[in-house]
Amino acid sequence: MHAPALLLSMLLCLAGFSGAAMAADKKPIVIEGMARVIDAGTIQIDRSVIKLFGIVAPSPRQKCLRGALPWLCGAAAKKHLQALADHQQARCVAVETFNARCIVKNKDLSNEMVLAGWAVADEAGNAYRPAEEKARAGKRGLWESVQD
Predict the structure, then answer these.
(1) Residue 135 pLDDT > 50, yes or no?
(2) pTM of the model
């Protein structure tokens, strides 16, 4: 993700998680409701914009290469998240100030995006590394045209 897109995502997330996600003496912030997909790594529930915890997904207009040909991998990744979560009941629990683990139909959206190859695990998302390895080995999503 490019720095401006990452900064924009972080700023948008302030609307949903203004302050620390969890303090030692407080309960975690939980947001529940109908999800609307903004991009491949961000959903909105009511007025809260939520970045999916532990992953980095391509930005909406990001292009990837298939051989020498560019394609809109960001749009494809967003489409996959829409199939998983758009207009579905979601439950998100803040893990960090700007990030939340979101569940739709008993599935962790971050894990599902990584497993399908439409996102990669970030430094906080170590639990998603096995899913990333499976996606890469299966040449799914973003890994489809990566040469080993």
Answers:
(1) yes
(2) 0.80
